[in-house]
């Protein structure tokens, strides 16, 4: 967006200076425009126009940057610009507007749509056309989703999924602060900044109660940091390892085996359910599946009937021999 402002310069050259997103018209120097009378300066001293060489006594003149005096017609011919719109010279005493290295009469710099003068007005270039602020907003500006007001050309805006907001209107549903260029998380009702979303929706670790930002493990529908999900015995992390629970506390294989595992009636080794697979239990007694066999003939008793006899377990054949 741009804005032009200007003022008449009597006997002076007008130049433009770009300042931010605006054009500001200022005098770069004051040119002298004086009238000399014959009785003020002796006739023997010549004072001629640097262009046409005619005497400047009794005539108005303008002194150029190099100090050389010029009569008004010569100055206009040599130093003034042609208007980009009407192609006429912009006289030394007229207000001259300059935009994009092109020069205009004040009345010639106009909106391409409504024709209003752009002097002292904000305007925007759209392609090759110059549009006043009202015309540009009417045809091309977006409307803010939050406040329903037009987003003025040149103002900061944010776009997401085909919708547009003023930067100040795109705020977090939690803290109500502008999100700006920060990361955000969309929700059905709006948007949350990262911290507010974490505080409201992110899962918390079952052990330390802090927010789980990335990673973590889930056990029994509960979330844990990886470094918080550890063996209750030795404290080693259990993520990605075999473990079991006892009284709702997780244990690694080694700690569970040393502390809670029962002994196999057949080989006296711990029965844990790890590695060797399933096991068999009968009247508070436990066997590895490979160890569950007849106490006399060592025939496997898996899937067949057996007969307990004191501390023994017997197959049908051995039972009949007793």
Automatic annotation (TrEMBL):
Top-level taxon: Eukaryota
Family matches, as Pfam families: LIM (PF00412), LIM_FHL2-3_N (PF25076)
SUPFAM superfamilies: Glucocorticoid receptor-like (DNA-binding domain)
LIM zinc-binding domain span: 81-141, 142-203, 262-322
GO cellular component: nucleus; stress fiber; Z disc
Main localization category: nucleus
Subcellular location: Nucleus
SMART domains for the chain: LIM
GO biological process terms on file: actin cytoskeleton organization
Membrane-crossing segments per the record: none
Gene Ontology molecular function: any one: actin binding
InterPro entries from the UniProt entry: LIM_FHL1/2/3/5_N (IPR056807), Znf_LIM (IPR001781)
UniProt KW keywords: LIM domain, Metal-binding, Nucleus, Repeat, Zinc, Zinc-finger
Gene3D superfamilies: Cysteine Rich Protein
PANTHER family in alphabetical order: FOUR AND A HALF LIM DOMAINS PROTEIN, FOUR AND A HALF LIM DOMAINS PROTEIN 3
Protein name per the record: LIM zinc-binding domain-containing protein
């Amino acid at each position: 967006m741009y804005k032009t402002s200007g003022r008449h310069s009597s006997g002076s050259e007008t130049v433009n200076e770009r300042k931010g997103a605006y054009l500001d018209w200022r005098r770069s120097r004051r040119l002298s425009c004086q009238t000399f009378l014959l009785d003020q300066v002796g006739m023997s001293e010549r004072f001629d126009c640097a262009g046409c060489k005619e005497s400047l006594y009794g005539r108005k003149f303008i002194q150029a940057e190099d100090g050389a005096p010029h009569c008004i017609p010569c100055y206009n011919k040599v130093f003034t610009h042609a208007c980009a719109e009407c192609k006429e010279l912009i006289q030394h005493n007229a207000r001259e507007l300059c935009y994009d290295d092109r020069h205009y009469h004040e009345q010639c710099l106009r909106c391409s749509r409504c024709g209003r003068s752009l002097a002292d007005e904000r305007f925007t270039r759209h392609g090759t056309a110059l549009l006043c602020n009202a015309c540009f907003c009417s045809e091309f500006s977006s409307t803010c989703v939050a406040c329903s007001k037009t987003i003025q050309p040149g103002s900061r805006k944010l776009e997401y999924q085909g919708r547009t907001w003023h930067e100040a209107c795109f705020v977090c549903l939690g803290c109500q602060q502008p999100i700006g260029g920060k990361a955000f998380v969309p929700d059905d009702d709006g948007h949350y900044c990262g911290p507010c979303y974490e505080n409201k929706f992110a899962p918390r670790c079952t052990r330390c109660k802090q927010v789980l930002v990335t990673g973590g493990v889930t056990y029994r529908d509960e979330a844990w940091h990886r470094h918080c999900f550890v063996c209750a015995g030795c404290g080693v992390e259990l993520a990605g390892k075999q473990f079991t629970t006892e009284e709702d506390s997780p244990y690694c294989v080694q700690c569970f085996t040393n502390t809670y595992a029962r002994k196999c009636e057949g080989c006296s080794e711990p029965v844990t359910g790890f590695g060797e697979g399933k096991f068999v239990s009968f009247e508070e007694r436990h066997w590895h599946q490979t160890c569950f066999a007849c106490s006399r003939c060592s025939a496997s008793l898996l899937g067949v009937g057996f007969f307990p006899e004191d501390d023994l377990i017997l197959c049908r054949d051995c039972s009949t021999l007793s």
